[in-house]
Amino acid sequence: MNLLRFSFVVSLFFLTIESICQTQPAGNLVIVGGGLEADNKSVYQQLITFAGGAENAKFAVVPSASGVPMQSYVSFRNILISYGLKPENIFLIKVALVDDDSTSDVNESEWKNGGSDIQQASLLSKCSAVWFTGGDQIRTMKTLYLPDGSQTPVLKAVWDVYRLGGVIGGTSAGAAIMSGVMIGGGTSLAALKNGMITNYQGDDFPEDQGVLVTKGLGFFPHGIVDQHFNARARFGRLTVALVNNKQQGSLGFGVDENTALIYNGKQNKIYVAGAAGVTIFDASGVRISYVQKLPFIENIAVNYLSEGDSYSFATGIVTPAKGKISTSEREPKNDSYSGQDGILSPYKKTLRDLIVKLAEVSLKDPVSDVTGLGPETGFQITLRKTKSSEGFYAEKQHYGDRYTVKNILMDITPVHISATPIINK
Fold first, then answer.
1. Within a 10 A sphere around the Cβ of 405, how many other Cβ atoms?
2. CA 345: distance to chain centroid?
3. Which of 237, 247, 381, 399 is most deeply packed, by most CB within 10 A?
4. CB–CB of 269/296 below 8 Å?
5. pLDDT tens readout for residues 141-176
6. Model confidence over 245-283: pLDDT tens digits?
7. Helices 137-144 and 153-163 meet at what angle, rounded to 10?
8. How crowded is residue 351: how many other Cβ atoms within 10 Å of its Cβ?
9. How far apart are CA 425 and CA 422, in angstroms?
10. Which of 88, 87, 84, 90 has its CA nearest to residue 53?
């Protein structure tokens, strides 16, 4: 039954995602890129405020993605209690595929049909907030869609909470499910080498096959969401998913760990809260060609936002948080930069590092980095400024400096890699 469900969900991927989001809900979203720490007050307080405040909030926790469903519920419940929520207002929604070995008297895998349980749906519908745990996002799709592709009663109840003004949140896998087009697995190098996979049937998608793309739950209407973005170098797989799905929109959102993309439905804006940032890709002006079957991708527009920054979907404008100043007013840094940091380097570069570096150098200087694909080929990532590029920053003791970078361009270029000994034998 699980394979049939997943196969049908994948086959529906190219049908109209717009049908998921026909009317704009009145609620809000808190989309966390994974690794949410208990002391991240800016994220938890925003989540609880959207839910009606600690005194009134009622949370439904859906552990459908988790490999340890009960542990995931208990952990999140304890954190909410530490922020002042009443224990009796935090409810477990029994939807899961995997047994939790910490509970000897309960087999959570028996909750596989919990999405069709009317009592669970009724319990959820009384809540002002729904939280999806981390794990494997494909498990959530299997449990919340029926074999014919229709919504289970539990999923319908989640949509009702959202439409009536409640908040829907999730971390890691619970973030991936938020968009109508969902990334189900894969690495950046595999995505660039092998492309997009939409017809995989089975469990445990092999990460080296490509990027698995299927249908999500569709709460976030403005583009594809990816998570663990900077820490796991997922910009390549988001790019491949994005350029192959432009019929569903041109925007992609990479959410870093311990960080939330907060979507305010009424304002039609996103805000950033937490430790790191949200990277926004815009593929509306992208050019793509192929060299030896490898993609040459040009002109991905990039914006990087950190805590307090906002982005308006009505105007396409990034607004830095109050107090940030232009990086042009900052004393230039003279630290060295290498275009390729391998295993011997203690200072490996990430996409965020490149973005921040670009914000602090002159207009004419692009920055780039090379990653090997095999013994002789790889990809060069190049970031370059435009005439409208801007950088902003604020010095912060907790989590480090906060940056905003607007209107830069990214190219992904297949390259030959060679190594020649400098000592003659």
1. 29
2. 28
3. 237
4. no
5. 999 999 999 999 999 999 999 999 999 999 999 999
6. 877 789 999 999 999 999 999 999 999 999 999 999 999
7. 100
8. 23
9. 10
10. 84
Q: Which amino acid is at 319?
A: T
CB 330 within 8 A of CB 359: no
Place of tokens 């991936």: 176
Amino acid making up residue 331: E
Q: Which tokens in the block code for residue 390?
A: 């801007």
Burial of 363 (0-12, 13-18, 19+ CB in 10 A): exposed
- pTM of the predicted model, to two decimals? 0.92
Q: How far apart are CA 216 and CA 374, in angstroms?
A: 33
- Reference 264, options 47, 90, 3, 83; nearest CA is 47
Which amino acid is it at 188? S
Residue 355: Cβ within 10 Å count: 22
